[in-house]
Design goal:
The chain is of the alpha+beta class. The chain has helices at residues 3-51, 64-67, 71-74, 153-203, 219-268, 273-305, 315-332, 351-368, 424-434; strands at residues 80-85, 90-94, 117-122, 128-137, 143-151, 311-314, 336-340, 346-349, 374-382, 385-391, 438-443, 450-456.
Length: 463
């Protein structure tokens, strides 16, 4: 079932039918209430007449309705009154019997005194009447039957008027609801069509076409915004992957070309054993370079997959292990590595990936710091985040490249000729992002650079 029909059904037809059913039930309750009010009026009239039937001159029997000064005003709705003797003969009635009307059949009062009896009768012309019969005794002990009769026509007309008005209002409400739901359905269908179009483009792999963002603030608008954000992330991830593949291919091409050139030269003519060994050493150096590049690419892929085991642990212990592992290389180069950290810093993190990120920061610092320099690793807590800052005494990072250094295979001008694949800081940022943190260059002026790795201190779902 399409959305428009579903909204018609659940937003217009079902409420209209439910309202109609409620109005029918309310009409029946209204009828019962009106009939009950009529019964109360009849009983009240019967009570008045029964105690005053014999208060005339000489205790002559009479009906007060017939002698009321308001008889003409109340005639259209006043009840009819009948008084019968013990043998069932009609003594008097109000109003008088019209000429040509059939005589009222005799009604014998009940010989037993009891409660008033209320019944509903239907006349020959189809009109409904409500009747109350009361047994009354005269001061001399004679039995009489007092019968009051009120038409239910006014009740029926009131209920019919109620139903006409209620059904008219229900019909108008149904038409209004139908119009409102039609408008909403069409508007919602257009909004959902835009989301469906975006999803279709994603399914076909089209990440170039612009994503339409719904301006609404409701759930559909939030879904559209989330879809646009997800599309932007997928587009960015694909572009990053394409750049990574292109850069990796470029990086692989250079050592492969050098290896091929070396082998071609070695095979062009007869070579002495020393020349062949030299060619093999050159090829071996390029193989080592390829191995380093392949290892860095694997590390980058592992960081992006983010399949880590995040546990609560001591971040200081990981930093201490990384610093201890870097001190051997630092001593060989005549440098010192210092660690400044609290006694214990608990956080939720993957120890392996964080250790790899810190190792990369220390490797960069060792690579660019001169002999006799110092490297400082400092761990602090700021704003609910653990801040790992690695500061070196090298040439620093130009301010214009403080973001570019985190791109795969990017190298600053001073890094030309330095070993490495240019993926160290890219892995650092990937580890930070997958933990819900960030990595950035904090110091770029003067001698030295300070690169910061921030990690949240609370657990974060994988994203």
């Amino acid at each position: 079932m399409k959305l428009t029909r579903r909204l018609w059904l659940h937003g217009a037809l079902v409420p209209a039918l439910a309202t109609l059913g409620a109005l029918v039930v309310a009409g029946q309750l209204f009828r019962v209430d009106l009939e009950r009010a009529l019964d109360h009026a009849l009983l009240a009239q019967a009570a008045v007449e029964s105690v005053s039937l014999f208060d005339g001159p000489g205790q002559k029997v009479h009906l007060h309705m017939a002698v009321s000064p308001l008889v003409e005003q109340v005639r259209p709705f006043a009840p009819q009154g009948y008084l019968y003797q013990a043998d069932g003969r009609l003594v008097m009635r109000y109003p008088p019997v019209p000429e040509g009307a059939p005589e009222e059949p005799p009604r014998v009062p009940d010989s037993r005194d009891g409660k008033p009896v209320l019944v509903t009768e239907v006349s020959a012309d189809g009109n409904r009447w409500r009747e109350v019969m009361v047994n009354v005794r005269s001061p001399q002990g004679e039995r009489y039957g007092l019968r009051l009769l009120a038409s239910l026509g006014q009740v029926d007309r009131s209920v019919e008027s109620y139903f006409r008005l209620a059904f008219s209002m229900a019909a108008v409400m149904g038409v209004v609801l139908l119009g409102v739901q039609t408008t909403l359905a069409r508007r919602m269908a257009r909004r959902l069509e835009a989301i469906t179009l975006n999803l279709g483009r994603l399914r076909e792999g089209d990440l170039v076409s612009p994503t339409q963002v719904d301006p609404g603030k409701d759930e559909i608008g939030q879904l559209s915004s989330a879809l646009a954000e997800a599309t932007a992330r997928v587009r960015g991830a694909r572009e990053a992957q394409e750049r990574l593949v292109a850069d990796a291919a470029h990086e692989l091409r250079t050592p492969l070309a050098l290896m091929r050139t070396t082998m071609d030269l070695a095979l062009r003519r007869e070579r002495s054993p020393e020349e062949l060994r030299a060619s093999l050493r050159e090829a071996r150096a390029e193989v080592d370079r390829l191995a380093v590049l392949a290892g860095s690419l694997l590390d980058m892929a592992s960081a992006r997959r983010g399949s880590w085991d995040r546990k609560k642990g001591d971040l200081r212990e990981v930093l201490a292990q990384a610093v201890e592992g870097a001190r051997a290389e630092a001593e060989r180069r005549g440098m010192l590595v210092h660690l400044e950290a609290p006694a214990r810093t608990e956080a939720w993190f993957d120890a392996g990936s964080v250790r790899q990120a810190v190792d990369n920061l220390l490797s960069n610092a060792l690579k660019f710091s001169p002999a006799g320099g110092e490297i400082h690793v400092r761990l602090t807590m700021e704003g609910g985040r653990n801040r790992v800052a690695v500061t070196d005494t090298g040439p620093g990072i130009p301010a214009t490249e403080r973001e570019a250094v985190f791109e795969p295979f990017h190298r600053v001008a001073d890094a030309e000729g330095q070993p490495g694949a240019g993926l160290g800081l890219a892995i650092v940022r990937e580890v930070a992002v997958r933990h819900g943190g960030r990595a950035y260059v904090d110091l770029t002026e003067g001698r030295g650079a300070r690169v910061v790795l921030e990690l949240p201190s609370v657990p974060r779902a994988e994203g």
